[in-house]
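Morning - iron/sulfur cluster inputs below, output right after.
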Amino acid sequence: MKILEVNDLNLGFRTEQGFRQALFDVSFSLTKGKTLALVGESGCGKTISAMSILRLLPKTAQIKSGEIIYNSENLINLSEKEMQKIRGAKIALIPQDPMTSLNPLYTIGNQLLEVIKIHQNLQGTEAEKKAVEALEMVQIPCAKERLKAYPHEFSGGMKQRAIIAMALACQAEVLIADELTTALDVTIQAQIMNLLSDIKSQLGTSILLITHDLALVGENADEIAVMYAGRIVEKAPSKDFFENPNHPYSKALLNSMPAKRGETLDTIQGQPPTIHQDISGCRFHPRCKYCFTPCTKSVPESFIISENHTSACFLNNK
Ligand code: SF4
């Protein structure tokens, strides 16, 4: 069952040079109880796609067309008041920097109790019991005492856990994790990813994982959507993607993953384009070693590679 669908989303920014498009016909969907990883280099449009879902966009951003369907409603058409009931409560963001979500002036308990009072309509000892349960769910030891702690008394990994606890206390159905492990060391990264995986299987929560790190994706995602310069270029079930990648950009990303000791890494030549660069045809063509005549002239459609696996590359039509 699809819990969230982004269909043909076109979005851009008003700049001094006029309107510049940043997302081109972006489509992906999230299945209930599954993890979809949106993967690509920095600046490829992953975060802005996620922020579109939450309607947390900069003032200069403008959605030109498309729809974002959650619970049969197009989120693009909702008022800010209606969005406030969904944001945090039904669809929650776990940001890269947890301090953007935690208030340093209030204890973790105050902040957790606040969301429990609002979203679960509980007060007093009942609310406190729920707060302790939420911290235990994210494996914070001595949960009851930890309610009295301030955010600065928590490590980076514990802050991330506290934010996940808040999302769970709201009974969020969708968690959007934006490069959440970037600031954490490898051991803590693994613990947080395991925690998300447990939450997914215990509560049926759906997770949108925004990441540039394919190594993280391999173990934790059910499906993968690869983004390049504002377009989705390949979508596949995770296993299929790693065994049979199709798009030259996906292959280049995989080849630049940290290899076994002693193996040399490939790098992708050049840089992704900025929104100020106009690129005709396939947006990857200036960096693609397989580029041939049609690639510079028209945008490749998505070709079906196998069940639920598509790739937007003309090589599939040769
Ligand atoms: Fe490369 Fe052409 Fe495929 Fe684009 S369409 S990825 S340029 S081969």
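Note: Residues 248, 282, 284-285, 288, 290-291, 295, 300, 313-315 surround iron/sulfur cluster (CB under 6 Å).

O.
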